[in-house]
Amino acid sequence: MEIENMRKTFLFICAAFILSLPGCRRSTTGNTASTTSTAAIAAINLPTLKCNTCVATVKRTVASMDGVESAEVDLKAKNVTVHYLAAKLDIGRIETGISSAGYDANDVRRDSTAYRNLPECCK
Questions:
Q1: Can you tell me the distance from the alpha carbon of 112 to that of 55, in angstroms, rounded to the nearest whole number?
Q2: pTM higher than 0.90, yes or no?
Q3: Residue 52 CB: number of other CB atoms within 10 A?
Q4: Measured between alpha carbons, how far is residue 34 from residues 19, 27, 39, 60 in Å?
Q5: Domain range spanning residue 117?
Q6: Does residue 24 sit within a domain?
Q7: 24, 39, 42, 117 - which has most CB atoms within 10 Å?
Q8: Is 66 helix (H, G, I), strand (E, B) or coil?
Q9: What is the mean pLDDT of each run of 10 residues along the chain (123 residues)?
């Protein structure tokens, strides 16, 4: 029985040692070197933003875009700050996505059909 306990202890120590070596563990955050080198931040003016429903719509729209890491909408400042991967997305596509949801984004005018479909509080 003592040999069995020694064997288990030895295996545990070996496993702990191997897992502590650099490169032996898989990162749970992904390859940060590739995302950091292409990360970008854009502040987009949203002059037609009116209420918290607008905030939720813009945030949901921007967050659903491939390449967006985060989006924070500020109702008082009437803007959105977007952290995104420049290799996958550019500010023009973000502005177009927001305008397609019915809101002006910088100099890109809102889609009139999408605007008509917004709730009354957003008009």
A1: 18
A2: no
A3: 12
A4: 24, 13, 9, 25
A5: 38-122
A6: no
A7: 42
A8: coil
A9: 58 51 41 56 96 97 95 97 94 97 97 96 94
Q: Are the CB atoms for 58 and 110 separated by under 8 Å?
A: no
- Domain of residue 50, CATH code: 3.30.70.100
First-last CA distance in the chain: 77
Are 60 and 28 within 8 A, CB to CB?
no
In the block, tokens 């995104």 appear at 84
Query: pLDDT value at position 38?
Result: 84
In Å, what is the CA distance from 66 to each residue of 17, 43, 60, 111? 39, 18, 12, 21
Residue 25 is assigned to a structural domain of this protein: no
- 78 within a domain of the structure (yes/no): yes
Is 48 in a helix, a strand, or coil? Answer: coil
Q: Is residue 94 part of a domain?
A: yes
Say what the pLDDT of residue 10 is.
Answer: 53
